[in-house]
Write a structure and sequence with these properties.
- The chain has 223 residues and is an alpha/beta fold.
- It contains 8 helices and 7 strands.
- Strands 1-2-6-7 form a 4-stranded parallel sheet, sandwiched between helices. A 3-stranded antiparallel sheet has the order 3-5-4.
- Strand 6, helix 7 and strand 7 form a beta-alpha-beta unit.
- Helix 2 crosses helix 6 and helix 4 crosses helix 5.
- It is globular, with a radius of gyration of 19 Å.
Length: 223
């Protein structure tokens, strides 16, 4: 996204591909332990790293995201086939817009997101060339993952997260609402709380409230 580089043609964007990068950055900074804060896909990545290397994680903060949807075991190779077909074809060029405002309108409609929340995403993510606006992001970000976790694997992941300091903030009109309707919050052994807003609630009016809760978590877990 934004000015980030695109991975090489043989690379992929499976969620686990980001884990070594995070650890290498922490190592470069000399952090033997550190906190993670992630939103949506970033929250999934934070959860995976927290479960895999709990000795490195001081605490994790998940913003309207936690785990990927489970995949039935019998669909394992259907998923892998989809990944291969998409990975081996040339990605389609991203959409082109005649103005930044038009791109903003489309982003709001497609993502059910307010203009307030969408504007920084659009301004960061677009480039202007030859009279049109186009997304900078690598189109392969939308390709299917090679594998997905099964329901039992996700249950093990959640149990691992319960053993480390964590904070799960859910949006009333976002991913959290789907978790509630699916019954995913029933008997969930984590500390979670609903806050007003959409999936991008951290870019909306309640950003101050979210920051307050995050700061309180950091203070109480790192006296």
């Amino acid at each position: 996204h934004g000015l980030s580089y695109h991975r090489t043609p043989q690379g992929s964007y499976n969620v686990w591909d980001d884990l070594p990068d995070i650890v290498r950055v922490a190592d470069q900074l000399g952090w033997s332990q550190f906190y993670l804060l992630g939103h949506s896909r970033g929250a999934i990545i934070a959860a995976l790293l927290s479960a895999a290397l709990p000795e490195r994680i001081s605490g994790s903060i998940f913003l309207d995201g936690l785990t990927p949807p489970p995949l039935p075991t019998e669909d394992t190779f259907v998923q892998l086939g989809r990944h291969l077909r998409e990975h081996l074809q040339l990605p389609k060029a991203s959409a082109r817009y005649e103005s930044l405002q038009r791109a903003l309108e489309v982003r709001c409609r497609v993502g059910a997101i307010s203009e307030l929340a969408a504007r920084p995403i659009v301004e960061r993510g677009l480039r202007h060339s030859e009279g049109v606006w186009q997304w900078r992001a690598d189109p392969r970000l939308h390709f299917a993952s090679a594998f997905k976790l099964s329901a039992p694997q996700i249950a093990v992941l959640v149990q691992a997260l319960a053993k480390i300091p964590h904070l799960l903030l859910l949006a009333e009109n976002g991913y959290g609402a789907r978790m509630r309707s699916n019954g995913d919050l029933d008997n969930l052994p984590l500390n979670w709380e609903f806050l007003p807003g959409s999936h991008h609630f951290h870019l909306e009016e309640q950003v101050g409230l979210i920051a307050e809760k995050v700061n309180r978590f950091l203070v109480t877990t790192n006296p």
